Amino acid sequence: MPRYRIYRLQEKRRAEFRWAPQTVALTRVKPRDYQPDGTVEAPNPYRAWAGLRGTAQALEVGDLLEEPSGRLWICKYVGFVEAEWELPEKASMGTSSAQGSQPVAMASQSAG
After folding, report:
1. CA-closest candidate to residue 74, choices 84, 66, 63
2. Residue 29 in contact with residue 82, Cβ under 8 Å?
3. Which of 11, 19, 38, 74 could pair with 83 in a Cys bridge, judged by C-beta atoms 3.0 to 4.6 Å apart?
4. For 53-106, what is each residue's pLDDT tens digit?
5. Taking CA 93 as the corner, what is the angle to CA 91 and CA 95, rounded to the nearest 5 degrees?
6. For residue 106, what pLDDT is reported?
7. How confident is the model at residue 15 (pLDDT cuts 50, 70, 90)?
8. Phi/psi class of residue 24: alpha, beta or left (left: φ > 0; alpha: ψ in -120 to 50)?
9. Which residues share a beta bridge with 8?
10. Does residue 83 contact residue 74 with C-beta atoms inside 8 Å?
């Protein structure tokens, strides 16, 4: 039986999440908005939710479950929807942006 890692949405983000449109499409989430909070053993996300319901560790809308494979599931009003970590743009574009801006900076320096 899989052991899901639990990630709790930070309280300051929870209200925003509750009022956002609830879709069943892949949801991108930011790691900085979540805190790890233990694990739960269950055959699927719905059983994990049911097993924790009524306890101090109950899953709330916005919380994540991560499978051992790394696949993420986010708890929404419509059920569990697949999610993925959103990487910061600076990290993914860092090398190409720096290389692209270098010639412009050099041109500015030689013009001055």
Report:
1. 63
2. no
3. 74
4. 999 999 999 999 999 999 999 999 888 999 999 987 765 555 444 444 444 444
5. 90
6. 40
7. confident
8. alpha
9. 35
10. yes
Three-state secondary structure along the chain? Answer: CCEEEEEEECHHHHHHHHHCCCCCCCEEECHHHEEEEEEEECCCHHHHHHHHCCCCCCCCCCCEEECCCCCEEEEECCEEEEEEECCCHHHHHHHHHHHHHHHHHHHHHHHC
What is the domain partition of the chain in residue ranges? 3-111
Which residues are within 8 A (CB) of 57 and not within 5 positions of it... i.e. 6 or more apart?
6, 37, 38, 40
- In the structure encoding, which two tokens stand for residue 62, read together? 């916005």
Compute the distance between CA of residue 39 and CA of residue 87 in angstroms, rounded to an integer: 23
Backbone φ and ψ of 51, nearest 5°: -65, -30
Global pTM reads 0.73
